[in-house]
Amino acid sequence: MELIDTDIRPWNAEDVREQFGDSLSLLPSNDNIKELQTILRDKNTTRSDFKFYADRLIRLVIEESLNNLPFTDCEVITPTGALYKGLKYGAGNCGVSIVRSGEAMEQGLRDCCRSIRIGKILVESDTDTHEAHVVYAKFPEDIARRQVLLMYPIMSTGNTVKQAVNVLTQHGVKEERIILSNLFCTPAAVQAVVDYVPKMKILTSELHPVAPNHFGQKYFGTD
Description:
It is a single chain. The protein is of the alpha/beta class. 33% of the residues lie in helices and 26% in strands. The chain contains seven helices and twelve strands. The protein has helices at 13-20, 31-41, 47-66, 106-112, 159-170, 187-196, 215-220; strands at residues 24-26, 71-77, 83-89, 93-99, 117-125, 132-138, 147-151, 154-155, 178-181, 184-185, 201-204, 206-207. The strands form three sheets. A seven-stranded mixed sheet has the order 1-11-9-7-4-5-6, with helices on both faces. A three-stranded parallel sheet has the order 8-10-12. Helix 2 (31-41) packs across helix 3 (47-66) and helix 3 (47-66) packs across helix 4. The relative contact order is 0.18.
């Protein structure tokens, strides 16, 4: 089998800012994260290992996504009776997963936010035209008043995400109140989404011209 060399200079924060402004943020990179990305891209990774390491990367991305939500000042009394000035999440956050691969990220969000509500969107592509269209959507009734974490791990073209955002905005969600939580995406997909919804924030762990499109099948054991 002929190998395709996709080794390119990695995108850094400065590159991202110059190309996409404030619309895209990269998870701060380190050797630990690079190892997780490597394991998930390796064709020899077993399904059990894949799920284990995918969940680790998902947790890191979710934590950083939550850091982009609005916080408000608060005060609490410590067990020693001292006054502590801290922060708490603003009211009204929810998650929305794009079925099916986005469902892999739901547990990571629940692990961080115990009682958070999660909606779902199913987007399918036409086998002939490859055009994406929404088949099913279910959200909290008051989603228009909430901050939304849209969960979709692999973004190759951006078409599915654009359709999902369409549904959210049709339900009254402002695009600036949506954060896309993503593991891997291509520069072309980011550009397509940023051009379409420039006020939405995107957080990803890696920007690379080749996305690991086997993710959903491998994670759920349907490969």
